[in-house]
Design a protein that fits this description.
The chain has about 100 residues and is an alpha+beta fold. Helices cover about 35% and strands about 25% of the residues. The chain has three helices and four strands. The protein has a four-stranded antiparallel β-sheet, covered by helices on one side. A hairpin with a 3-residue loop joins strand 3 and strand 4. Helix 2 crosses helix 3. It binds the ligand C[C@H](O)[C@H](O)[C@H]1CNC2=NC(N)=NC(=O)C2=N1. The site of the ligand C[C@H](O)[C@H](O)[C@H]1CNC2=NC(N)=NC(=O)C2=N1 has 6 residues, from loops. It catalyses: (4aS,6R)-4a-hydroxy-L-erythro-5,6,7,8-tetrahydrobiopterin = (6R)-L-erythro-6,7-dihydrobiopterin + H2O. One of its GO terms (molecular function) is 4-alpha-hydroxytetrahydrobiopterin dehydratase activity.
Length: about 100
């Protein structure tokens, strides 16, 4: 989709940002987790959604408690509606117990 279309849809997925990485549009969101293992727990829940959707995010767990998820569609080298659907399903998770308070 175009940058214009993405700019419209991004407003509907709370907490996510639109980034342009090497000319590829991606969705991006970060959290701070309480512990390293809670980060992995979060990834497991996200993995279950990804498998159910047949759409898979890039998962990063860096510096023990910084989780970043990027979503884009590799096959088109940019964003599709599926990326926004996956992002909103991740945001709808009840996973507050895994995160540090400040990072929401
Ligand atoms: C065959 C299979 O459905 C495809 O390879 C899917 C799997 N999950 C995917 N996930 C994402 N994010 N982008 C893709 O292009 C993609 N392709």
């Amino acid at each position: 989709m175009t940058k214009e279309a993405a700019n419209e849809l991004i407003q509907k997925v709370h907490g996510w940002s639109l980034v342009n990485e090497g000319d590829t549009l991606k969705l991006n969101r970060s959290w701070k987790v309480k512990t390293f293992k809670k980060g992995l727990e979060f990834f497991q829940i996200v993995a279950d959604i990804a498998e159910a959707e047949g759409h898979h995010p890039d998962l990063h767990l860096v510096g023990w408690n910084n989780v970043k998820i990027e979503i884009w569609t590799h096959s088109v080298g940019g964003l599709t509606e599926n990326d926004f659907i996956l992002a909103s399903k991740i945001s709808a998770l009840d996973s507050h117990h895994l995160f540090r308070k400040a990072s929401k």
